[in-house]
Structures are given as structure tokens and as C-alpha cells.
Amino acid sequence: MIFSSITFLYYFLPAVLVVYFISPKQLKNTVLLISSLIFYGWGEPKYVFLMIATVMLGYVFGLLIEHFKGKALSKLFLAVSVALSLAALAYFKYADFFIANFNSVTGLSIPLLRLALPIGISFYTFQILSYTVDVYRGTVTAQRNPVNLGAYIALFPQLIAGPIVRYSDIDRQLAARSHTFDKTAAGFRRLIIGLAKKVLIANTLGELCDTFTQSADLSVMYYWLYGASYMLQIYFDFSGYSDMAIGLGKIFGFKFMENFDYPFISRSISEFWRRWHISLGTWFRDYVYIPLGGNRVKRLRMLFNIFIVWFLTGFWHGAEWNFIIWGLYFGILLTIEKFFFTDILKKHKIFAHIYVIFFVFVSFMIFSAGNLAQAFDYLRGMFGMKDLPLLSAETVYNLKNYGFVLIIAAIGATPAVKFIRNRFYARIKNTLLPDVAEIIIFAVLLLIVTGYLADGSFNPFLYFRF
Questions:
Q1: Which of 452, 464, 466 is nearest to 202 (CA)?
Q2: CA 358, CA 264: separation in Å to the nearest integer?
Q3: Which parts of the chain sit beneath pLDDT 50?
Q4: With 0-12 CB in 10 A as exposed, 13-18 as middle and 19+ as buried, what is 390?
Q5: Residue closest to 255 by CA, chosen among 180, 144, 160, 154
Q6: Which residues are catalytic?
Q7: Please, are residues 259 and 278 in contact by the beta-carbon 8 Å criterion?
Q8: So what's the pLDDT on residue 425?
Q9: Phi and psi (nearest 5°) for 342?
Q10: Which of 247, 297, 316, 426 is deepest in the core (most CB within 10 A)?
């Protein structure tokens, strides 16, 4: 089940909300846990048992780590907990990658496991890792109530596509949180914004990307059109899911961290990663980069730390070499920028912005490919290194068909819409117009989104890869 579906919006969510809000305070987390397990098991019921096992192991190890705090056993239990979590992730997500590469090196033919990837395993694995590490560090106390911990790990609003919510951010909210009309209304507004970004923009651009991958009439400009479409598709898809998660969290009384902050207005790659998938970047900073020594070590060791972080960042996104190359690509850019380029970028702001857009554009051509060979093929096509015309009839046709959506997406990826909205609301703030306008706008958006979904329009779920 995904958020952008009729089943979720008009059956599952309303049913959960009714049961949740009529339940007494002490049962609300139980309702969330049960509904989250139903949500998770909708497509692959067998993986519900994996989720339950994950919750129970996290619960037991959290208590053991805290009980033996300051002793060698505490570190041992932390190591076992981390090893088991990473082993599950490696088995389901990376086993075939390792087998295929082993076969390639050795010439053997070990059969692939071809396991279905449990939805959200990359996200909830990092959540359980942060929980046990924070218990070991003493920044949080171990959760005594297994239902509360289960609700945190399996919480359906952020389960399938993040943001990566840390236990330390919501431990108090699990025990006590407020529910107000204003918070609930804000949550629904954010949910509808996310739906619109996903269904109306990301899915439409996804149609263009799908058309490109099946085309026999390619051109150099078609590669650039595809790259722009994919870059904006994944932004609106991912940020749209984050908006929906944050909105649903508000409805249930939680406050999740923001995950995107207009990354395409950045003037350095470093700034881009402070604005893109913020929860992942801060997770790697706090649980990998800083423990390795961060930038408080000698230059050679710092370069090693950067290499490890960006290798893992790429590998986290998918079990293909193009994801690893994508991660290292950013690691190299950040290193060059840090040591040689910072002053230039500060002095030449227009150049800095063009520089970021270009290299991020190239990165998503690598990211979008199904494998490393295809990634290099995309780059060759993009830079005119294949025997292709500059333009083709299909390129022009799709540019006409999707040009307006691309322009809307490009504007929507900047703070321009927010700026215009704030200026408009500032002029009418002392009237009833803001409330009336919001009701009409969000009702119309929901109606349009529902029409698209009911029509069975193109509605891919990108996070099966992650």
C-alpha cells in the first residue's frame, strides 16, 4: 500500500483515524502499531514477521545495552544488535549484488536468491541502529514498553520512504503528545501538498522518463530532457512523500524533521546536501562521519572518512555499482570543493548556482540508470558521444507535451511559490479570505489528485529500489 492510492486515502486512513481518535490515550500507540503492521503487510504479508522480529530484537537489545552500561557486555550487545540489523539488510538488499559480483570474478555460477526487497528496510534499519547506538551513548533511555518501540519502528507515516526519524527526536512524543484542531488541519494541508507533488508533478514527469527509456528515436537533447525530467521527478516524488509523512505525523501528534529545503537553489554541493534528504545526511554525519573522527583528524584520515561516508551513502541507495559511483562522485566533488573551491563559489554566486545544477544533473543521470553500463551509456548520449542527432521528432513532441509541467516543476522547486503565497496572505491576513482560499485550494487539489488516481494514471513507486 502506498500513500498515493485510493485504498490508502479513502479506506485505510479514514478507518485508522476513526479508531485512533476514539481510543483512549493509553491505547493510541497500540492502534498505531497494529495499523502500521496491517499497512506494512498489505503487499507482502510474510515480511510482517520480519518487522515484528526487528522490533523485538531492538527492544531486548536496548534493555540489555542499558542494563550493562559501562561494562564490556554493553558494547558486546550493541555490536550484536548492529550486526544483526545490518545482516538482515545485507541479506535482503545486497545478497544478489554480492553473489553476482562473486560469480563475475570467479567464473562460478552460484544461483541468485532473487529475494523480494522488504519495503522500507533501508529506513527502519537505520532507525533501529540509531536507537541502540543512542541507548549505548546514554543520550536516550531504553524503551520499557515494547508497543511504544514498535510504534516508533513500524510507524506507517514514515515507514516506506522516510524521513529517517530518530528515536531521540520522538521518545517523549511516544509517551505524551497533543492533538489539536490546528495541528490536525496543518497535517492534512501538508498531506495534500505532498500528494499533489507526487501525483500531479512527479508522476507526469515519470511518464516522460518512461517514454524515454522505451524510445527508439533518441537524440542528444532527448537525453538532456530526460535528465531534467528525472531530476525533478525524483525531487517531487521524494519530497512529496516526505511532505505526506510529516503531514500524517502531525495528524497523529508527532513532529518529524524536515527532509528537503529547496536543494536546487544551492550554491555549493555541500549546501545541496544540507538541503537534500536532510535526515539521511545528518544520520551519516552523526553515526559514521563523526565517530570516524570527522574533520578533527589529519587530512589523509579525513579524506578516508569522507570516502567511507559517501561510499556507504551510495550503497545505501541501491545494490548496483552505479549507486556506489554516484556516492563517490559526490564525495570527490565535496573534497575538491572543500580544499580548493570554496572561496571561488562564495565570490561568484551565479557561476556557483550553475555549477551545482550541472553536477547534480550529471549525478542523477548516473543515479537513474539500471546499472553501471547504462549509466555510462546515458552520459555518452548526454555529451554527444553516440551517433545521434541533436534533435529528433520525438524529442520535439515530448518537449511540447511536457514543457509546461517542466516549467511548473522548475518553479515549484524554488521558494518562489512560498514567497508569492506569503505576500498574498500578508495582504489579506485580517480577513476571512485566507481560510476560505485555503479550503477551496486544498479541496480542489484533493479532487484533482483523486481524479488522477481513480483514472489509473501512471503511479510508480520509486522506493522499491531503496
A1: 452
A2: 11
A3: none
A4: exposed
A5: 180
A6: 317
A7: yes
A8: 73
A9: -60, -50
A10: 247
